[in-house]
Amino acid sequence: MIQPETPRAANFIRQMVAEDVKNGRFGGHVVTRFPPEPNGYLHIGHAKAICVDFGIAQEFGGRCHLRFDDTNPTKESTEYVESIMDTVRWLGFDWGPHLYYASDYFEQLYRWAVELIKAGKAYVDDLTPEQTREYRGTLTEPGRESPYRNRPVEESLDLFARMRTGEFEEGTRTLRAKIDMASGNLNLRDPVMYRIRKAAHHRTGDAWCIYPIYDWAHGQSDSIEGVTHSICTLEYEDHRPLYDWYLDQLGVHHSQQIEFARLNLSHTGMSERKLLELVEGGLVSGWDDPRMPTLAGLRRRGYTPESIRDFAERIGVAKADNLVDIALLEHCIREDLNRRAPRVMAVLRPLKLVIENYPTGQGEEVEAVNNPEDPAMGTRRVPFARELWIEQDDFRETPPPKYFRLSPGVEVRLRYAYIIKCTGVVKDPQTGEVTEVRCAYDPASRGGDARGRKVKGTIHWVSAAHAVEAEVRLYDHLFAKPKPDEEEEDWKAALNPTSLQVLTGCKLEPSLAGAAPASRHQFERQGYFCVDSVVSAPARLVFNRTVGLRDTWAKIEKTATPSG
Ligand code: ATP
Ligand code: MG
Q1: Cβ–Cβ contacts within 10 Å for residue 227, how many?
Q2: Counting atoms of ligand 1 from 1, which one is nearest the CA of 231?
Q3: Which atom of ligand 1 is closest in space to residue 270's alpha carbon?
Q4: Over the stretch 396-411, which tens digit does the pLDDT of each residue have?
Q5: For the whole model, what pTM was predicted?
Q6: pLDDT of 5 strictly over 60
Q7: What are the DSSP calls for 95-134, one per residue?
Q8: How many CB atoms lie within 10 A of CB 362?
Q9: Going by CA atoms, what residue is nearest to atom 9 of ligand 1?
Q10: Lowest-confidence range among 3-17, 71-85, 133-147, 209-223?
Q11: In a 3-state reduction of DSSP, which class is residue 72?
Q12: Atom 13, ligand 1: which residue's CA is nearest?
């Protein structure tokens, strides 16, 4: 059982379900389902749906099924099934024994289709896909009835059976529901229930060459499983009358469908087609590229399942489409890691610092706090010596105003160690670039005790002799614009050219030598980083920056609030 990170707020889904439970509808039971089509990797939008589906079931002591709506053999695969299961588990949810596949219901769906034909509620149509589209009409014009609509029941039964045995070519016939070609709702204009597809299915193999359309499979699958609350996104609102029609004709269990607005996140995109294009075009390294809004990408980036569940809870559910600022997601991971990630010192753009009055060949260890937010995380010992690495940014030969870091003649504190004063620099005779900063330390200031002096800056460092080398990958938003989805024409032009910056030769404190893949750390003053779980190796450590330390959400929150 997962404890919510943020207290649960009232929302319309909770209220509807609570009302049903109170009134004893469905015997007071709550059964939900998460119904992905295994045709891609799950993204952060799916995480919202997963948290709602599983969350509602948990809250009301019910259960949530994982059901693959695998009705389209040409787009689906076992690879996707496995990655989806792995991701749902990673998010912290458990479907127990309730793993289902719409493909397991193919036989039942077929029998129901036959029932509808017999009842004069469905017919085999010989129109081509193009004709079917043409006959369908538009939002302003009614559709036209197919000339095959009123063919005898016996004939439809015979043709449907022969469709199943593979007698006809793809696109030559369909099974359609006989509803109303003049309906204002296009979904009710004799929707197709089955089409011929001579393709092997990842689970049923060659058993079928007709496949149910999603809309014919979905509601009946919910019904078979006894789903009480079928929670889905708004675009299915117009399909609800069709689902109801099917269930009414069959006279079987009805679940209550409840729609909510899908998640749109700024500076990214959730369109499967565009994500696929990024992957196939090599614009990202794969579905799990840490810049991708996929859960595989966020996971590799260093996001925790807790932070994503927290995010899902905070955005809540709404009935109207909205855009959530990605800064809120970043805020959630920052809050989580602030409490949990051990802090270390790492120098990303190294500059040599030599302490002239520190004895050569000597060294010592200083004590460093692992996480001031959590004393139980204890302390560690960090080696200190005459030669250190500091951040290039932490030294300026000619400091700008209000620069409190190191510059000639100025004193700073070395985190957990001593106070030093810059005495000079060594420059590259050719370029004039500062290659080394020289300084003197105050041996009596151990632990950073300034003894009454005013020392404004504190900088981090790593002992040169003990440093562990690593590659560090800094990420920024995938898209430079907040709403790349609006750029229909040339959406790729909205990609952020500096979404990935690779730094090599970074210097880390030695405690990170054996850092485990996927382990998360705060690099003091820099942000949160995790060991890459794909390319990092003991001989070549690679870190991903999950998120920087500066929180932009707090600022945004004052001017706008997320949906709720
Ligand atoms: P996509 O095309 O992005 O994959 P989809 O509509 O095809 O979305 P599925 O892949 O079948 O949906 O996903 C299963 C469930 O996840 C559906 O119930 C769907 O409503 C939900 N879902 C998909 N995208 C989002 C989103 N952005 N926000 C919230 N829920 C979503
Ligand atoms: Mg999908």
Answers
A1: 27
A2: 18
A3: 3
A4: 999 999 999 999 999 9
A5: 0.93
A6: no
A7: -TT-EEEGGGGHHHHHHHHHHHHHTTSEEEE---HHHHHH
A8: 9
A9: 36
A10: 3-17
A11: coil
A12: 36
Q: What is the pLDDT of residue 172?
A: 97
Q: Which residues contact 141 (CB under 8 A, 6 or more apart)?
A: none
E strands of 428-540, at which residues?
Answer: 434-441, 457-459, 462-463, 468-475, 500-508, 520-523, 527-531
Q: Which CATH number fits domain 107-213: 3.40.630.40, 3.90.800.10, 3.30.450.20, 1.10.3210.10?
A: 3.90.800.10
Contact between residue 531 and residue 542 where contact means Cβ atoms under 8 Å apart: yes
Residue ranges, comma separated, of all CATH 3.40.50.620 domains in the chain are 12-103+216-328
Torsions phi, psi for 381 (to 5 deg): -105, 130
Query: What atom of ligand 1 comes closest to residue 40's alpha carbon?
Result: 4
* Residue nearest (by alpha carbon) to ligand 1 atom 6: 233
Q: Where in the chain is the domain with CATH 2.40.240.10?
A: 346-463, 468-555
Q: Which of 153, 121, 124, 161 is nearest to 247 (CA)?
A: 121
How many CB atoms sit inside 10 A of residue 67's CB? 24
227: confidence class by pLDDT, cuts 50, 70, 90: very high
For residue 414, pLDDT beyond 90 = yes
Pocket test for ligand 1, best of 34, 46, 240 (most atoms within 8 A of CB): 46
Instruction: State the fold for domain 12-103+216-328.
Output: Rossmann fold (3.40.50)
Task: Compute, in angstroms, the gap from residue 75 CA to the centroid of ligand 2.
Answer: 10
Closest residue by CA, ligand 1 atom 2: 272
Nearest protein CA to atom 22 of ligand 1, as residue: 46
Closest residue by Cα to atom 29, ligand 1, is 262
Residues with CB under 6 A from ligand 1: 35-37, 40, 45-46, 48-49, 232-233, 262-263, 270, 272
Position 7 scores a pLDDT of 58
Q: Which ligand neighbours the alpha carbon of 270 most closely?
A: 1
- The alpha carbon of 205 and the centre of ligand 2 are apart by a number of angstroms equal to 21
Domain 468-555 top-level CATH class: mainly beta
State the DSSP code for 478.
S
In ligand 1, the atom with minimum distance to the C-alpha of 53 is: 18
pLDDT tier, 486 (very low <50, low <70, confident <90, very high otherwise):
confident
Residue 340 makes CB contacts below 8 A (sequence gap 6+) with 304, 371, 374, 520
Which of 233, 323, 563 best tests ligand 1's pocket when mutated (most atoms within 8 Å of CB)?
233
Strand partners, 411: 421
CATH superfamily of the 346-463 domain: Ribosomal Protein L25; Chain P (2.40.240.10)
> Which residue's C-alpha comes closest to atom 18 of ligand 1?
232
User: Which ligand is closest in space to the CA of residue 50?
Assistant: 1
